[in-house]
Amino acid sequence: MLGLPLEMFVAASSFHYAVQLYNHNAFVGKSGWLDRVLVTPSNHRVHHAMHPVYLNKNFGGTFLIWDKLFGSYQAERDDIPLRYGVSGASPGYNPFWASNQGLLAWTRRPFGGAEGRAQRLPAAYIATGGILLFGMVIYYVDRVAGWDAVGKWSVFACLVAGTIAIGGMSDQRRWGWTGWLALTLAMPALCAGLFGIRDGWALCLLALMLVHGLAGLRLREAAWAN
């Protein structure tokens, strides 16, 4: 909605995800003096650990100054084993539920995760759908400044709906698959037909989304035949 330059978005995203990839690796041990100032793999492992000493610690993304200032810093200890996860009920694999676990607990709504559900949709299908959706997000950020209000909000709503559908598929929910199928069939008509978006990048992404949705139709019989 802000019309950021694509170069700025890609550069910032690339740096951010490169740092996150490094911080989430299990191959790097402790990093000496860097562990005292930066969020290193060692410090971030603490953030994801379940031991009571480690819970609610190391919230920072790059520097440790805020954790040290507010008393939430905890160094990794050799005498405490690392076991990753969250305390309490698991919200499943849906990133929406996982991100709003506290709100759901406050409203006393069930999480409705994927526990006990058959793996009906292949992980590769869900992952490629997420990649295609992210491609549309990049396109949106690059081109949104030149669109009218209806186009901006319509495509934005589709991207939000796609994110929710991907989350539903991650939890092996039929509504997630149905929503994703409807979106992949509707977006090409919406973008190319109604809004006249016909540049090469958009048409390529929309065609791939359409193929992805049609491939999902072939999964229907195997996935929810019973």
From TrEMBL:
GO terms for molecular function: glyceryl-ether monooxygenase activity; iron ion binding. The keyword RNA-binding does not apply. It is a multi-pass membrane protein. This is Fatty acid hydroxylase domain-containing protein. GO terms for biological process: lipid biosynthetic process; membrane lipid metabolic process. Its main location: membrane. Residues 2-72 form the Fatty acid hydroxylase domain. It is found in: Endomembrane system. Keywords: Lipid metabolism, Membrane, Oxidoreductase, Transmembrane, Transmembrane helix. PANTHER family: ALKYLGLYCEROL MONOOXYGENASE, STEROL DESATURASE-RELATED PROTEIN. InterPro entries: Fatty_acid_hydroxylase, Sterol_desaturase/TMEM195. GO terms for cellular component: endomembrane system; membrane. The chain crosses the membrane at residues 123-141, 153-170, 177-195, 201-219.
